[in-house]
Amino acid sequence: MTIDLPSPASPLKIGTRGSPLALAQAHETRSRLAEAFDLPPEAFEIVVIKVTGDAIQDRPLKDIGGKGLFTREIEEDLLSGKIDVAVHSMKDMPTLQPEGLLLDTYLPREDVRDAFVSPTLTSISDLAQGAVVGTSSLRRRAQLLNRRPDLKIVEFRGNVQTRLKKLGEGVAECTFLATAGLNRLGMSDVPATPIDPEAMLPAVAQGAIGIERRTNDLNTAALLEAIHHLETGHRLRAERSFLLTLDGSCETPIAGLAVLDGGTLSLRGEVLRPDGSQSLSGARIGPIADGAALGVDLARELLDRAGASFFDWH
Predict the structure, then answer these.
(1) Cβ contacts of residue 110 below 8 Å, gap of 6+?
(2) Burial profile 63-85: b = 16 or more Cβ within 10 angstroms, e = fewer
């Protein structure tokens, strides 16, 4: 098909949250599109949309509606035509999109690792007995308590800058951030130590940027195809099918990571009780084309091993 290219007079509108990291991701998307089609940056307009998840900072996400609070207003503007595409951190994305929207474009994945952030320490093992740790992540909380039940976990909501400010104020001795976010923000001065995924399995889709569009907007689909990263797409297909199968049964801490080696995909997954008292993990290896099926199969295994009482924590 012939692609109608955007122009400064009629730009493609890119919707995003307003945090510094979200804006960095939107600018990366704009740069990749402009380069792919040899267009000026002005052919793409970045539109900042206020979302509920950013407005409410004093309560855990699970208490106010979960991941969808970072996407709902953006998706409403996408459906209404106020914007043409939406740029998301994939680890914030629900596994299902609203009717009429499709998420099938991913940029090259950044570093998947969590980072241990502290002005004085370099690892979890350096923390004193009963140390205070700040995190808003249900997964990180459970993984930490599974390893160190003596730790005291305090809520640390907010963007990267807000959490670093709290850390500087002494609210906690350390916190955890995605290494990808620090890299995208150019924050090499932050005292952060990446954690090997073998020690702390990251969130599903951590480090990946996804671009959402209207299902029937074929022109935009053709534009986005030029910047889609196939390898990241294969990895996320497996990870998100794992998450989707688990999400259908529970709200629980979940971690997962797929890696590619030639034509083979390896998937590791973990589910935990929120208090860290139990952790179940498993793995699957198979052809890349079977990634989604591997994710479903691994999730079903963990659900069977867990039993109903594993998720009965409310």
Answers:
(1) 179, 180, 183, 184, 207, 208
(2) eeebbbbbbbbbbebbeeeebbb
- Cβ burial, residue 171 (10 Å; 0-12/13-18/19+): middle
Is the separation of the CB atoms in 214 and 75 below 8 Å? no
Distance between CA atoms of residues 94 and 86, nearest Å: 14
**Among candidate residues 192, 179, 47, 160, the one with its CA nearest the CA of residue 113:** 179
Please identify which residue in the block is written with the tokens 């793409």.
44
**Which residue's structure tokens are 């991913």?**
106
At residue 47, the pLDDT reads: 98
Instruction: Return the pLDDT at 57.
Output: 52
pLDDT at 102: 97
Active-site positions read 92
The pLDDT assigned to 58 comes to 52
* Structural domains in the chain, sorted by start: 12-107+208-228 (3.40.190.10), 114-194 (3.40.190.10), 239-311 (3.30.160.40)
| Location of structure tokens 């000026």 | 40
Indicate the SS3 state at residue 88: strand
**pLDDT beneath 70: ranges in the chain:** 53-68, 248-250, 312-314
Alpha-carbon span 309 to 149, nearest angstrom: 21
Cα 133 to Cα 58, 62, 115, 143, 175: the distances in Å are 17, 19, 13, 12, 6
